[in-house]
Structure formats: structure tokens, C-alpha cells
Design a protein that fits this description.
The protein is an alpha+beta fold and 140 residues long. The protein has helices at residues 2-37, 48-71, and strands at residues 80-81, 87-88, 94-100, 105-112, 123-130, 134-138. The protein folds into 2 domains: 1-42; 48-138. Strands 1, 2, 3, 4, 5 and 6 form a 6-stranded antiparallel β-sheet that branches. The protein is elongated and about 100 Å long. The relative contact order is 0.11. The model has no long low-confidence stretch (mean pLDDT 88).
């Protein structure tokens, strides 16, 4: 009788294993079908107008930062912006721009105190570093 009970129990376990395998396979196939049929998500590049506006804003910020450094006579008057790249600092309102002359490159870091870049006190110079030459100015 124990052999008969073991065989019946094994049959039930075998049927349960087959049902579990069939459901698992069906779930795997459903996931694969959904993955194949769903369209890939493509991130559209920003419109050209936004890029142009961001470039103008970056150039205005860097020009104001450079003007502040030139106002303190820390860089020569013929210093020009090296690029229209602006790095956003870890402190809110702090930005870093790059400037250069024929002989040197500078990293100008400043805090933006207001929105009107035409006001001289709107840009508060934080630091000025010359590549290979060290720190020229550091606000405390």
C-alpha cells in the first residue's frame, strides 16, 4: 500500500511540475513578445532654437564673468572666451567659464547674484585659476 501511495503522490508532484513549467514558459514567451513588439524609446534632440538660446545665455554668463575678472585687473584686457561652455558648480548660482590669451588659459569661477548681467555687482568673482600657474584669486 505504501508503494501505491508513493506512486500517486509522485504523479501529483509530476503534474504540478509540468503545470508550473508550462506557466513559466508562457510567461517567458509573453515577456519576449512584449519586448519585441514595444517600440524603442528615442530621446529627441532639443530643438535648434533651444540650443541657440542656451549658447547665447552661456556666452552672456561667461562674458560677464570675464568682465568681472578684467575689472579687478586679474587678466589682461585682451583675454577672450575660450568656448561657450559653462560648468554649473555644486553651489547654487556658481558657474565656471574658460578664457584664454595667446599665452595662457584661465578658469573663471563666479557667483551669479542677480538676473541682470549688465549690472557690475551681479557677478561676484569667486576664483581665477591659470592653467599651469596656480590660483590667481580666491575669495574667502
Amino acid at each position: 500500500m505504501t508503494d501505491q501511495a508513493n506512486v500517486t503522490g509522485l504523479r501529483r508532484e509530476w503534474i504540478a511540475a509540468r503545470i508550473f513549467a508550462a506557466l513559466g514558459s508562457a510567461l517567458l514567451i509573453a515577456v519576449a513578445v512584449v519586448a519585441i513588439l514595444s517600440p524603442p524609446k528615442i530621446v529627441a534632440p532639443p530643438p535648434a532654437r533651444n540650443v541657440a538660446m542656451q549658447r547665447q545665455l552661456a556666452q552672456a554668463l561667461c562674458t560677464a564673468g570675464l568682465a568681472s575678472a578684467q575689472g579687478f585687473a586679474l587678466v589682461p584686457s585682451y583675454t577672450k572666451l575660450a568656448s561657450d561652455l559653462v560648468q554649473v558648480g555644486s553651489v547654487k548660482g556658481r558657474y565656471t567659464c574658460f578664457a584664454q590669451t595667446d599665452a595662457a588659459r584661465y578658469q573663471i569661477t563666479f557667483d551669479l547674484m542677480c538676473r541682470d548681467l549688465n549690472k557690475p555687482k551681479c557677478v561676484n568673482l569667486y576664483s581665477l585659476v591659470q592653467d599651469g600657474g596656480g590660483t590667481i584669486y580666491q575669495r574667502r
